[in-house]
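We close this part of the discussion by returning to an individual protein. In the encoding step, the backbone of a single protein was reduced to a row of integers, each denoting a local shape. The sequence in question and its structure tokens are set out directly beneath this paragraph.
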Amino acid sequence: MPELRKDPVVGRWVVFSPERQIRPERYRCEELAPSRPEDDPFLEGHEVYTPAELYAIRPGGGAPNSPGWQLRVVSNRFPALRVEGELEKEAVGFYDRMNGIGAHEVIVETPHPQLVLEKQNLAGIARVFDACRARILDLSRDARLHYVLVFKNHGALAGATMPHPHSQLIAMPVTPIVLKEKLAAARSYYLEKDRSLFGDILQAERKIGDRVVFENDGFTVFCPFASRFPFETCILPRKQSADFQNSSDDVLVLLAEAVQRVLLAYHSALNQPSYNLILHNAPFRRSRQPDAWTTIDLDFRWHLEILPRLTGVAGFEFGTGFYINPTLPEEAAGILREAVTRG
């Protein structure tokens, strides 16, 4: 029997239709063909083929833009937004526009072209999040920028065009509507109940337990009550924190463990699916309204979403803003928990 569930954060409805379900082993997965070494600009020794380094980790030292690195961050060669220039806002008749000021960076996670994120050791995965933290802190100093989105597209169905393991970062001069919806819901909930919406979600999921996939001392991983996609997971910090960039090294290692466990479970249970990983973080506090962020440190909590690309989005989703999910989150969590336990 179909069921509708409402997302408690943004109010979105999701239609769960088990009659449409496909067994996990039958989900189609489309992998990118490995790059030939001569075509891979992220390969160690190919530093000349990328823009200049913005950040790198070289345990043995060495000059920028040279071999010997464990991780590099460079500007995207085909940026969605560009850092050069002054931010200009104007009205065009009834409409508003601004020039495309921002930053678009690529985090090359490893010099090894086949070493996917979950197959790195915990130190290697934590290194990726360390780079994200460093770049967000650096970009926060630019008064033109309001928000930094960190995301990872893995696999052809998730929009990846390069098989070499990498993540991306886009800094923008506005706060995106998806985050605004989360911020507004968190603030409204806090003002009404004097409690954190994300804290209450975490407490409810831990108490019920049947949607929890994995926990450690820092994070709880669960399939959300109103998951948009089959096997969607949320990684939520156990302690209140609005800003990812304030995370300690120890927290990043715990985050690395949570991400690794989830991705390995996807790998074994879902036939190595494409996925999108998204970091939802608080915006920089640049509002012209003095009371806009007075409760954000109490009501909003940064978190990761991982969205396996096992089903498509079509007319119903575009026409309603709803999603159709053939797999209940309780069933998805059970399958992933078993995969985590098997290791």
